[in-house]
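Practice record 12: protein with zinc ion.
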Amino acid sequence: MGFVEWNCPRCGKKNREKCNAWVYGSPIRNCKECNAEYFDRRWREIALEGVEPASKNAKLYLGATIAFFVFTCVCALWLIYDIKTLGGYPERLLGCVLIGMVGTIGCFVVLLRIVTGYEDRQNRRYYDESVKRLQNKSYVYKLIAYGYDVPEEFR
Ligand SMILES: [Zn+2]
């Protein structure tokens, strides 16, 4: 899960919207305050652009999980060594251990989502929503008007 934030160019209010990690959804958004419509390229219309390639790459997340885990272990051992020999430790080192742990767990969760097929099922849901939006011709015209490259099959 994540958030996308932007300031409405019309009323200036900060909009904060929930999204999945890869920001799948319509790039045409509406301001929650004044309802003005804007185009936000960060959103990915996946029926047109496809899923984010990294979201299918189990090897990438396996590598990242191992790298974070090794980093965490090295920092933790260093921390233990410092406590035993110096009776204390630099705070930054504890920070590294915590960041390493969060990174390890985060990458491992994504890895599990990919290998169990959960990610694929989620993607299919987002894909279906995307196709449904694109069946609306006026929506497609709007995308084109905003400079979005829409393939022939959806025009
Ligand atoms: Zn606004």
